[in-house]
Amino acid sequence: MSIPLPRGPRPAAPSPASTALTFAWRAVLKFRHVPEQLFDLVMTPIMFTLLFTFIFGGALAGSSTAYLQWFIPGILVQTTVFNTVYSGMGLSTDLSKGLFDRFRSLPIWSLAPFAGLMVGDMLRHSIAGAIILGIGLALGYRPEAGLTGILASFALLLAIGFGWGWIFIVLGLVVRTPMTVMTLGFAVLFPVTFASNIMVDPVTMPGWLQAFVAVNPVSLMTTAMRALMAGTATLGEIGLALLGPAILTALLAPLTLALYRRR
Amino acid sequence: MQDDLAIRARGLRRSFGDLRAVDGIDLDVPRGMIFAILGPNGAGKTTLLRMLATLTRPDAGTAQVMGHDLAEHPERVRAAIAMTGQFASLDEDLTGRENLVMLARLWGFGWRAAKARAGELLAAFDLAEAAKKQVKDYSGGMRRRLDIAASLIVTPGVLFLDEPTTGLDPSARAGVWRLIRGLSAEGVTILLTTQYLEEADQLAGRIAVIDHGRKIAEGTSRELKAQTGSGVLHVTPLDPGNRAIALGILGETAQADPEGARLSVPVTDDAEAAAHLARLSEAGIRLVEFSLGAPSLDEVFFALTGKEAA
Hints:
The structure holds 2 protein chains of 2 kinds. By secondary structure, chain A is mainly alpha-helical. Chain A has one domain (16-262). Helix content of chain A is 79%, strand content 0%. In chain A, helix 2 runs antiparallel to helix 3 (64-97), helix 3 (64-97) packs antiparallel against helix 5 (112-139) and helix 6 (146-174) runs antiparallel to helix 9. Chain A starts with 15 loop residues before the first helix and ends with a helix. Chain B has 2 domains: 5-93 and 134-225, Rossmann fold; 231-293, Alpha-Beta Plaits, CATH 3.30.70.100. Chain B has helices at 45-52, 74-80, 96-106, 111-124, 140-150, 170-185, 197-203, 221-228, 243-250, 270-282, 297-305, and strands at 5-16, 19-30, 34-38, 60-65, 68-69, 81-84, 158-162, 189-194, 206-211, 214-219, 231-237, 255-256, 263-267, 287-293. In chain B, helix 3 (96-106) crosses helix 4. The model of chain B has no long low-confidence stretch (mean pLDDT 88). The chains are: A mainly alpha, B alpha/beta. At the A-B interface, helix 1 and helix 4 of A face helix 2, strand 6, helix 3, helix 4 and helix 6 of B. Chain A: GO terms for molecular function: ABC-type transporter activity. Chain A: Keywords: Cell membrane, Membrane, Transmembrane, Transmembrane helix, Transport. Chain A: It is a multi-pass membrane protein. Chain A: Residues 36-263 form the ABC transmembrane type-2 domain.
């Protein structure tokens, strides 16, 4: 057996951008080989959209159509936040399979595998968001700010996904099995997304809960999403929505690197 | 700087909590050699390998790999080595070809060059037909071959192989052995870990035996056998009541199997084995079974340390 071992000079180390592109390609391949993951990503939000719109919508907002206007920006936030769990699960799987060891023993930028995960996440968020928005539009949702509103709100959505993604990257590094990452993730995310203004206007909630809902980052993000879709967003609203993701990134990105190097 | 050494390690130590996984190991691996680290499960083989591959930080000790210091220039060490871990470090969802293209891209190949390199490796490793199958559908032997191919995108100075044949069937094992010999013939230094004495014996120019994080012996296969005996005589007395007497006749180096009635004694050659059998026969001890075999890892450990392997 003859093994082709090149003797010449090696290629120069790839740029961070080219490395991230390679990891993004991996994420696209995963969609192609495991299309059912798309089903996991959008099944729950689709169910939520249909149930809330047609069962509770009339009671909550007077009519299903009126409720859609309220609900679609919020369910987009919820979808994105929930889907960040999957990147933590993916990371945990890669770690348990030893794939990350291979990445780590390559002479590449040490944050590149995470940047790659993030690029894959952005792709996932965009696809899942587009599907949910598409269903919303088909059911009669009409963003007042039109295409501009959609593009601006999707940009915010990606920033939200980026910031929240760190939580599950850190969990993925610390927790041993992908299933535990998912269980922990949902245990946190269910209360945080329900105790927000995604489904209902918080005016009927008890005072202590209203106080929480008002400062819940999920509510701040949802408020900004609605404003962007409606074309009424103020810098203040957008700033508040970005505060959570910015703080998460500032705290957890260095922690990720420290945890990763410590292993 | 000793240029003829691929790896030079002094006093490497690493603990995990109270467990001293590697407890002060020195290692000199000459360039171009197949060097085996032999030891039972939990002896510290993987931790030692991971430290040398920059994946786990040593608590103490120093090492140079291909002339680069592990602590000062881990990135240079990384550029000089390739590591194939104990479990296939591949993306199971991707095809064999996609895995190799991805890694070639991460080494800095352009798309076209990456595809060409993946094609070459798939052909050389007899995986061309499976190139478009997802890795999760590969057999154990195919996976191992792809895993090793993934370590050869560029030519490494040192290739680390952590238990390359554990869990493989005999024919897949023979395939991996051929591969390792082929790589060595091309001048790649190979440091491998194994639990199988036979594997170390077959492949390695030098063997270090480790146990409980310490090196308990090192040498060529011949040198180790001089210490441990090249083979083992197994005998099973017809009357289990004669076991103690038989053990006395076989001498101090003899061991009784903890379960069953079998006794084992290291021997240097067939003549010594025949002499043992003759003495048993003279003492009137009838045997139901006897055999001459290579010593097992347990028996090597017994010969080297006087106690059972961990």
